[in-house]
């Protein structure tokens, strides 16, 4: 049987400050935040990542700003700034406490990729000549901060648009390989919007056609060889367009949850069949805390989801 799902308020014992539609706990009660540049601006942050000491917030569009926010003091520091008419960063993840990566749409003929090797103090953009080329009309979607996946030293980046492919690095962004996918593609709003890997071999991608949200074919695919080959699953069944898909922890790679235009769906057979858990279509991203609890974010909301078997 699939689990039931409930949507309680996000519990917190300490006061909180509302920051760009995300609830951030304050460790020592109310603080003055007006001296922080991003609190008073109209920046939109769709990429968030963290290490042990800091939270990192990366804005979309031009100009791009990347802030480091201390978990202990909430003090913010601008650690990267870029201006270009085509700049649009989509996703950010950390491999470990020292090394992290963010990817964005092309300003030349490759992804925009910035990497830190010093815990987020400094970020450097990788030269286009060192990166694999994108096709015309190929980019990434800032849908749920899940078009980068990291597992150990392994990294997968997914693209969409005219082409929808998987870019793989075995050495934390130093070298890259490209793998084709059968996900629907060919238009500007088609392709992979989200990916997850349970381990170095088993992964899942989802997406579809953003402009045809009920279309539920060509939008789900699975790999068992680290992303080299992909096979479509659950054709014409289950959810349509999805902005986020995630493996359930400790499920041996069998259980997944998706969020998108069709609501919340659950699979316990590696994505072959899906059961709808909720009809809420205003959630865009999800991250598991443990096998029973996840945090989801969406339109003016941040909720904790408990999966009760």
Please tell me about this protein's structure.
Helix content is 1%, strand content 45%. The chain is mostly beta strands and 309 residues long. A 4-stranded antiparallel sheet has the order 1-28-27-26, with no helix packed on it. A 4-stranded antiparallel sheet has the order 4-5-6-7, with no helix packed on it. The chain starts with a strand and ends with a strand. The relative contact order is 0.12. About 9% of the residues have low confidence.
The total of beta strands comes to 28
Low-confidence stretches: 9-35
**Global structural class:** mainly beta
The count of helical stretches stands at 1
Determine the mean pLDDT.
Answer: 88
* Strand order across the largest sheet: 1-28-27-26
Radius of gyration: 19 Å
Helix content: under 10%
DSSP strand content: over 45%
H and E order:
EEEHEEEEEEEEEEEEEEEEEEEEEEEEE
Largest sheet: 4 strands, antiparallel
The global form is globular
Distance between the termini: 8 Å
